UniProtKB/TrEMBL annotation:
Enzyme class: transferase
Taxonomic placement: Bacteria, Bacillati, Bacillota, Clostridia, Eubacteriales
Function statement: Catalyzes the condensation of ATP and 5-phosphoribose 1-diphosphate to form N'-(5'-phosphoribosyl)-ATP (PR-ATP). Has a crucial role in the pathway because the rate of histidine biosynthesis seems to be controlled primarily by regulation of HisG enzymatic activity.
Record's subunit section: Heteromultimer composed of HisG and HisZ subunits.
Domain of life according to the entry: Bacteria
Localization in the cell: Cytoplasm
Family from the record: Belongs to the ATP phosphoribosyltransferase family. Short subfamily.
Keywords of the record: Amino-acid biosynthesis, ATP-binding, Coiled coil, Cytoplasm, Glycosyltransferase, Histidine biosynthesis, Nucleotide-binding, Transferase
Pathway: Amino-acid biosynthesis; L-histidine biosynthesis; L-histidine from 5-phospho-alpha-D-ribose 1-diphosphate: step 1/9
Domain comment in the entry: Lacks the C-terminal regulatory region which is replaced by HisZ.
Residue stretches making up the ATP phosphoribosyltransferase catalytic domain: 53-205
Protein name: ATP phosphoribosyltransferase
Species the sequence originates in: Hominenteromicrobium mulieris
Length: 217
């Protein structure tokens, strides 16, 4: 039987994902000692981990070269979803927010507004839901710069602790949506390998619940 292939988002979500896999009893030694390798066996070789950039996790799962993926809800909201979202993993918690320079009134006045974001689709949908005609400019990172440099009236970005906003004289105007890491599945894999996938997801879900209970004690 081919191993079940899971694409993991490299970077911020990586550590919590590997911890969860280990907690459910899968040996992740090779992932921990990966060096520059990108495809690694976990457990007894029944699962294969693929390390990828967030948006690419979705591409690999949608195209069926990976059966499962671990990716932030932010990436799902920005890139659409031709796959099943099967579990909220509970880590990687942050939120999408509209933020502006401290003391400014984004919704006031009649002048058309400009917003910068690394997530233009999320930003567009937010303003469409408000029936507001807002110009969106795509920025690749450190989006907080855009209002400081006078390029935009506000930003739509991820806020976790709020430190980046605070240290740059910005503040949250409105929270748009909560974000956490999700387990996603390719639609065909979920039919063909239903038992394996559901068994793995159930083990993860039980562990997440256990972790939550231990945290609240
Ligand atoms: N403070 C945060 N900033 C950004 N993402 C966060 C934060 N906290 C949790 N996350 C989650 O972690 C995921 C991965 O973020 P990470 O910064 O590692 O990759 P990225 O957004 O692709 O950035 P880069 O292009 O710098 O690699 C995000 O998609 C999001 O779901
Ligand atoms: O609320 P905080 O805890 O300060 O975290 C939020 C910051 O972290 C992310 O940036 P990241 O470090 O991923 O860099 P980037 O801006 O280049 O994407 C995000 O885009 C914010 O800038």
């Amino acid at each position: 039987m081919k191993p079940l292939r899971i694409a993991l988002t490299k970077g911020r979500l990586e550590k919590d994902t590997v911890n969860l896999l280990e907690q459910i009893g899968l040996d992740c030694t090779q992932v921990r000692e990966k060096g520059r390798r990108l495809i690694l066996p976990v457990g007894n070789g029944e699962i294969e981990v693929v390390l990828a950039k967030a948006a690419d996790v979705i591409t690999y799962v949608e195209n069926g070269v990976c059966d499962l993926g671990v990716v932030g809800k932010d990436t799902i909201m920005e890139n659409g979803s031709h796959f099943y979202e099967i579990l909220d993993l509970g880590f990687g918690r942050c939120r999408f927010a509209l933020a502006c320079r401290k003391g400014t009134d984004f919704f006031g006045g009649y002048k058309a507004k400009t917003v910068a974001s690394k997530y233009p689709n999320v930003a567009r949908q937010f303003f469409e839901s408000r029936a507001m005609d807002v110009r969106i400019i795509k920025i690749e990172g450190s989006v907080e710069l855009a209002p400081l440099l006078g390029l935009a009236d506000g930003i739509v970005d991820i806020v976790e602790t709020g430190t980046t906003l605070k240290e740059n004289g910005l503040e949250v105007t409105e929270t748009i949506a909560g974000i956490s890491a999700r387990l996603i599945a390719n639609t065909a894999s979920l039919k063909m390998r239903k038992q394996e996938i559901e068994a793995l997801a159930a083990r993860m879900e039980a562990q997440i619940e256990k972790n939550r209970e231990e945290k609240s004690v």
